[in-house]
């Protein structure tokens, strides 16, 4: 019997509480707005004993604790001069800023019950992306890795990124599309980083990136990526030829030395240089533009 009494009393208290507490509602508990546009934080008294002067308070819930937005019948804090109470007790923010993204709590107390009704509104202020900073290596040898970066930090919510080659969008993974069978790359759309594990000639092209979020998109300027042949065989051959030439020169010098070409004091004092001129060829200076012509007495 006592238990039933306790239960009934509890039920009665709950009913009284329910009647006295205001019940609040909202036409939109998750409003989304573009930065610099206006937004209504809708708060509607749905149920309760209406009084002539309900006390209205709005709070912004931050990590450091709630702060007042509307208190004592005026807008205070960050939103001062930017917000008004419209259609009691909804709040309208005229010129939203990115820092307004937060949870707001509407609290209404009627002067009979003194039991506040409350409702939370989650406001999201969206910010368009700005032009991303893009980084494309200018020239990469065939077979080497290449990393392309694209990033912007203004967009709210965070931007996602897409790379384009010669105006054609690249998939997140080259393996996912037969068109890119000759490439091997992966893109992380969240970071904007495009990684080629080994570039091929077909990766040469004009690259740009677009950052996108629900508020808009922004593109960086095109940049050229050049892929060049690093011809290993050619380099080895070239090195061998140089080595061969050096060996031959060394051998020639050795031979010449052995045969005494470098010894001083030839018997008839004639140097090889002067006698190297073939007999019968006379070097003549002709009148026209000081050219050297030679004519052989054997030819004429
Ligand atoms: C809105 O606020 C920004 C600064 O946050 C200011 O530059 C701009 O002039 C304001 N616009 C209006 C219409 O008040
Ligand atoms: C890939 O490379 C092969 C051989 O070089 C070529 O025949 C083919 O057309 C290329 N495919 C694409 C999609 O570029």
Automatic annotation (TrEMBL):
Entry GO CC: bicellular tight junction; cell-cell contact zone; plasma membrane; protein complex involved in cell adhesion
InterPro entries recorded: Ig-like_dom, Ig-like_dom_sf, Ig-like_fold, Ig_sub, Ig_sub2, Ig_V-set, JAM-C
Transmembrane residue ranges: 232-257
RNA-binding listed as a keyword: no
Location(s), subcellular: Cell junction, Tight junction; Cell membrane
One GO BP: cell migration
All residue ranges annotated as the Ig-like domain in the record: 38-122, 132-226
Recorded topology in the membrane: Single-pass type I membrane protein
Broad class of the protein's primary localization: other
Swiss-Prot/TrEMBL keywords: Cell junction, Cell membrane, Disulfide bond, Immunoglobulin domain, Membrane, Signal, Tight junction, Transmembrane, Transmembrane helix
Signal peptide limits: 1-21
PROSITE patterns assigned: IG_LIKE (PS50835)
GO molecular function: cell-cell adhesion mediator activity; integrin binding; protein heterodimerization activity; protein homodimerization activity
UniProt record similarity statement: Belongs to the immunoglobulin superfamily.
Name of the protein in its database record: Junctional adhesion molecule C isoform X1
Originating organism: Microcaecilia unicolor
Gene: JAM3
């Amino acid at each position: 019997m006592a238990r039933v009494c306790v239960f009934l009393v509890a039920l009665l208290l709950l009913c009284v509480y329910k009647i006295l507490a205001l019940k609040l509602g909202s036409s939109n508990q998750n409003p989304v707005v573009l930065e610099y546009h206006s937004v209504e934080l809708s708060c509607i008294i749905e149920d309760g004993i209406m009084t002539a002067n309900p006390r209205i308070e709005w709070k912004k819930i931050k990590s450091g604790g709630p702060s007042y937005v509307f208190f004592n019948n005026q807008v205070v804090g960050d939103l001062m001069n930017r917000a008004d109470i419209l259609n009691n007790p909804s709040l309208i923010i005229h010129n939203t800023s990115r820092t307004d993204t937060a949870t707001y709590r509407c609290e209404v107390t009627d002067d009979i019950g003194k039991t506040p009704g409350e409702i939370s509104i989650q406001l999201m202020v969206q910010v368009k992306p700005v032009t991303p900073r893009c980084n494309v290596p200018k020239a990469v040898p065939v077979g080497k890795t290449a990393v392309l970066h694209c990033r912007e930090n203004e967009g709210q919510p965070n931007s996602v990124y897409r790379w384009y080659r010669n105006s054609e969008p690249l998939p997140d993974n080259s393996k996912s599309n037969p068109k890119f069978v000759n490439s091997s790359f992966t893109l992380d759309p969240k970071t904007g980083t495009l990684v080629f594990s080994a570039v091929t000639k077909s990766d040469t092209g004009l690259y740009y990136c677009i950052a996108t979020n629900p508020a808009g998109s922004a593109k960086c300027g095109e940049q050229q990526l050049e892929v060049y042949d690093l011809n290993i065989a050619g380099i080895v051959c070239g090195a061998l030829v140089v080595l061969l030439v050096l060996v031959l020169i060394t051998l020639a010098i050795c031979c010449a030395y052995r045969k005494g070409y470098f010894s001083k004091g030839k018997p008839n004092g004639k140097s090889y240089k002067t006698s190297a001129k073939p007999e019968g060829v006379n070097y003549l200076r002709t009148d026209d533009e000081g050219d050297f012509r030679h004519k052989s007495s054997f030819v004429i």
